[in-house]
Structures are given as structure tokens and as C-alpha cells.
Design goal:
The complex is a heterodimer of chains A (181) and B (434). Chain A has 181 residues and is of the alpha/beta class. Chain A contains five helices and five strands; from the N terminus they run αβαβαββαβα. Chain B has one domain (40-396): Orthogonal Bundle (Cytochrome-c3 Hydrogenase, chain B). Chain B contains 15 helices and 15 strands. The chains are: A alpha/beta (181), B alpha+beta (434).
Chain lengths: 181, 434
Amino acid sequence: MIMGGMDKLVCPCERLKGYFQMKVTKTKIIGIGNILMADDGVGVYAAEELNKKIDKKDIEVIDGGTGGYSLLSIFEDSKKVIFIDAVDMRLPPGTIKRFLPEQLKAVISDNKRYSLHKTDVTEVIRMASLFDMIHQFVIFGVQPKTIREEIGLSEEIKKKMPELIDLVIDETTSQHKGDEN
Amino acid sequence: MHNIHEHIEHITRVEGHGNLVINIQDGKIKELRLDIVEAPRFFEAMLVGRSYEEAVHITSRICGICAVTHTTASLKAIESAFGIVPDEQTVKLRKLMFNGEIIQSHILHLYILAAPDFLGVKSVFPLIKTNEDIVKRAFRLKGLANDLCMIIGGRHIHPCSMVVNGFTNLPKKKDLSLILERFKNTRQDIEETVSLFKNIRLPDFNRKTEYLCLDTEPQYTFYDGAIKSSFDWTIDTKLYRDVIKEFVVNNSTAKFARASTDSYMVGALARINNGFDKLNKRAKEIASELGFTPPSFNPFMNNIAQLIEVVQCVDDTIELIEDVLGEELKARIPIDKDVRIKEGLGVGAVEAPRGTLYHEYEIDEKGIITGANCIIPTAQNLNNIQLDLHALVPMIIDKSKEEIIQTIEMLIRAYDPCISCATHILRVEFEGER
């Protein structure tokens, strides 16, 4: 892993190819999360791994960090966006689940809020969908074990990383039944 | 007299990290409290034991909205400890990054968080159906500011090109020229934003308090300067501990802060109250159009102050880019040769969108951070919000429960609080599952 324990910290985005210019690509894979909060950063770690393995002109892998609404301008020209994120599904740690936004119950609160610092990916997707920006969203949720102020993933999540990477790569090449919308 | 006993937890989806407690019995306030956990406290411990080079990668991840300011405060603390004074080009590029961050953060707050209050809707989402143009304008302006940060910072989310004493990569002149044209063409969006907020009615509530911000001559500043108080004193940021006193109170996990008196305010309203004369011409004209006269003691005016700052930053950006384009951008800075590590203590203070942000590091002779202290703007505003709430509620106590809660929430939103963005974890339930 890129940031285990007290190893020297290197910004993962520095290793991501093309990080200085956003490309207009058909598919964007966006890893979401905070690498300072243990398993919350699984999406960012996955993005770095995927960058080593994916070398296709029409696919871009992005470290989305905790970008919130700033993510909108990253994927506005894409046909398909694949998010990888830590998701609390109340399942055993390391469980990976692929889902589409419409499979979720209405989890986005319409309540007024005090702060924009908690914008999650479903809100961004909802905003983008209402603007007809994107053709298809897919989320790969990973059930975290540990969410606390710590750098590095828990062992359970590290073990599942190869499987997660394979699933996301498959997603870029295959069409899932029932996804057409 | 009605009774209100509410415990509102939707400030954040992480339970216990931000709660508003309202308990009014027979028209008397029994309890009125805003609890916010300050995430950056935890990051201080994370910095200790790390090399100075790693600090930037940690601090840029503290916040997705204020990444430029956290990163810059961190870089300035390190540069101060090492005795490094960055060159003019670096400072200009950093100032451009600040303008980008202030614009995108204020626009997001004004349109997404504050506007629904004034347009009578629950959130921004209903506006997409009724006022699509408004929401599109918000994201157009935010996108422009994000692109400015991307051209210079490498990315607009958690920028990565900013390092001690320079940038790892420099923006291309072609990209700067293109964004300059976009900034010049943004006048209509700005005018329409001003029109939108000109017509809003803010609650008539005033409470005199102290305002603190950074101040420098002769310009309006976000990047540098000394600490200036509306109580007529100025002090070097290195001495911030002499004037800013942090304290804890019962029933709250957050640290509060005070300076000359019980509480003070930081952020756009503080900056404009203290530095109105330094605003550029158009920002002053817009302030007049919006009915802003300094000093304003109405915290709800922080919304208007943010809009004035957006205008300030747009015009300042045009000027700065033209300035940068007029010079030859130097090639990549030889970072290793330019940074001479030495033992020391350094303070980095900047103006984040929400107010003054302090990072202070103790660094040993090998460049390892041995001590860190961060004070975020919201922590400084917390006691001021609390005192505002206690002054405001008796004035509206005869209103309906809904109106009281709505006004309290609007007050808190006016401060644009930065509540832990340490984790954003999504909690979901699937259709068809229990």
C-alpha cells in the first residue's frame, strides 16, 4: 500500500499520470475518501493501484479525495463514472458491493444544513443527474473496519484490495445487466 | 410561552460531532449550545514525527474545501522555521490560489447553503427545478475558481504542486491567458449574483463584538500580514499565543477562543469591517449597492461580506494574472538546493474563507516536526456564535418554535462553519432491504 504506517508519506496524486490536466475521457474512475482517516481513504488508495494497471486512452483514474461538489467539474464530460468509496452498509469489514445510485433508498436529506463540509458522493451524483450531466454512475462501496484519525488501511481492507481492483477493471470492460438507463 | 427542547444532529452525519442543543422552558433559556468537534486537533498529532516534506500532503487533506489555505499555512510555518522568504513569483501564484479558493468556497456557501433560506426552499435541490439558471450560475462560478486552482496547483481538490519555497510545476502561460479571459467574461454572472442577494432580507440583529483578521499595507489580504483587531491593536502573527487564548468549557469537546474580550469573530465580515478601505473600487461599489456600511455588527451580514469578497477576488485575480503574464515565469525551482533545513519554531497564518488559520510547528535539525498547533477559524468563532445565540433567542422568543429554530439555524449558517470534513463516510440502505 502507498501509505502504510510510518512510511514516508508521498502524495498519491503525484503518482497519478496526467494529474496536471483533466482529460475528456469516456470513463472516469474516481476514488473518494480521506487518507488521514484510515479505511475512509480506501477509494484514494484504490485509485493509485488502478493507475498502475489501467493504460487506456478513454479511461482516466482520479484521486477525488474529499472534493465534494468540486467533483462535478471533474466528470462533467464523461459518459460513465465509477466511484470507489468507503460505505457503511452494516456488512462485515472488507465487503465490496457494486450498486447504482437508484438502488439506494432516499438517503440524501433535503434538510437544510449548517456546513458544506459533509457533502457526500450521493449528493454530488444527485446534483449531476439533475443537470443531465452524466449518462451512467456506478459506485463500488467498501465496508470499512476502522474510521479514525490514522494513516493507512486496516488489514481486512488491504486484503480485499486485489479483488476490488479486479472488479473495477471488469466494470470498465463489461456491461452489467439492468444497468441501461 | 411555549417550550422547546430540541437536540439537532443533522449538522453532520457523524453522530456526536456537531450538535445544536436548544432547551427553552416557559420562555427561559435553560440550555442553548452548539457543539463542534475540531478535527484539526487530531491532525496535529499526525504531523508530529513526520518530515517537513510530508506535512503538505497531510495538511492538504485536512479539508476538501480549504485545502489551499491549510497547505499554505503549513508551508508558511515551515518557511518561517527555516528562515526562508519565498520569491515574488511564488507569492503571486499563491495569492492567485487563495483567490480561487475564496471564490469557490464563498460561492458554494452563498448559493448552496445560504440562498435556500432566503428563497424559501429546504435545500438547493428544489431550486434546480424552479431556478435552474441560479444553480448553473453557482457551478459555473465555482468551476471557474476551481480551474484557476487547478492550473496553478495541479489539481483543484487537494492541490499538490505547492511546496516549501515554491511550486513543483509552473502554470503554462497559455492556460493563464485562457483563464484570464474567462475571469474577464464573468461580469454578468457576478452582477446576477449581486442582484440575487441584493433582495434578500436579513434578520435585524446586532451584537457588538471584536473582529480579528490579518492586515497588511496597502492591499486587502488573505495571504499575509499581522493580526489586526477592531479594538485598535495589531500584533505580529508570531505572537498569536499572546493574544489568542484558547479555553475549554463544560459539556463541550471543542476548544473555544477569546482575545480582548469574551469572544471574537473571524471571516469575511471581520476582514471587511477591519479592511474596508483596502477593497478595490468595484468591491466598494458592490458593497454600497448591497447596503453594506462598515462596521456591521450583524453576523448575518457575513453572507453579504462574502459576496463583496468574491467581487474583490475576481478583480484582483484579473490584475494578478496580467501581472504574472507580464513576466517570464521561471523554470522549475530547484527545491532541494533552496531549502536549508534548520531547527526552529515557525508560525504560518493565513486568511481561510472562514477566517484566520494558524499552523505552528516546532522542527528539529533533521527537518522532523516535533510539535504542532493548529487553530481553525470555526474554533475561534464558536464562542461568538454561542454569545450571539444567547443574545438572539430572547429577541425572538415569542415567535413560533419553527421560526426560532429557523432563525438559529440561519445564524449558524451565516458563519459558514467548517465542521469536520475528516471523514465523509456514506451510510446507505438499499431498496428492498430492511
